[in-house]
Amino acid sequence: MFEIKYLGYFKFFYYLTQIKGVSHKELLTPKLILLFSTFPNQLFILLLPKTTVSMSHIIAPSILAADFANLEKEIEMINNSEADWFHIDVMDGVFVPNISFGMPVISAISKHARKKMDVHLMIVDPDRFISDFKKAGADILTVHYEACKHLHRTIQAIKAEGMQAGVSLNPHTPVAVLEDVINDLDLVLIMSVNPGFGGQSFIENTYKKISQLKDLIKRSGSKAIIEIDGGVNDKNIKKLIEAGANALVAGSFVFKSQNPKETIKKLKQVM
Ligand code: DX5
Ligand code: ZN
Predict the structure, then answer these.
(1) Which are the contacts of 224, defined by CB distance < 8 A and separation ≥ 6?
(2) In this structure, which ligand is nearest to the CA of 142?
(3) pLDDT tens-digit readout, 126-160
(4) Catalytic residue at 89?
(5) Atom 9 of ligand 1 has which residue's CA nearest to it?
(6) Catalytic site residue 127?
(7) Residues with CB under 6 A from ligand 1
(8) CA-CA distances (angstroms) from residue 48 to 63, 165, 225, 266?
(9) Does the pTM of the predicted model rise above 0.70?
(10) 209-227, pLDDT tens digit by residue?
């Protein structure tokens, strides 16, 4: 397996680019190429600090909790932080009892964002807007299982637009409903609160759902990654990752903290 065989090199590459801030261009110097070719892969695994193992999970701050009057500043903070994605929550006031923002705001965010745009649709009949979200800058488009009549068709339409496809499950929706589409998915988003609002308390049943989903993914040979959304903080993140979560959305915990950039860093280093 590529990941296991070259884990040391990958870890070293991650250490230089993400922790030390070396640019990809700088990496291609003869000195570094010599270093890579001289030392065995395994040496890097032994020598590098434990925190670099945190490359295995993704942190996606939720813009919903940002200061909308200073959106450009908030976007720059995420650009300059260790966060991996922008999590963008779209609410229509029908599927969920709240309205957030739509295409013009997403396009504006995307103009400044230098990281992946992870767009979470909490809207009925999302098929109507798939190409609009692509145009607005979405890289990953996640729809709710509960909001789609023909989920398989919706997933194919997202992929046909060149985006990664995700499906989200409400806290009451069992993982088993994804059995027949799991191989078509890039991502499954487990809601760990009822969708609609930031700042709610985490639902403990989520851990059980993560392990059920992990089993399903393994059994079916799917490449889908597991994302958790709602009430994520420094108290539950480690347990979530241990249960099998790959990507963690954090809204209030990041943006309402004293130093959001530092908070993101801590969430990245949690393992
Ligand atoms: C809830 C949204 C979440 C929300 C998370 O419906 O999907 O992404 O912003 O916010 P916190 O982290 O505050 O629970
Ligand atoms: Zn969300």
Answers:
(1) 182, 185, 186, 187, 188, 217
(2) 2
(3) 999 999 999 999 999 999 999 999 999 999 999 99
(4) yes
(5) 198
(6) no
(7) 62, 64-65, 87, 89, 120, 193, 195-196, 198-200, 229-232, 249-253
(8) 33, 34, 26, 18
(9) yes
(10) 999 999 999 999 999 999 9
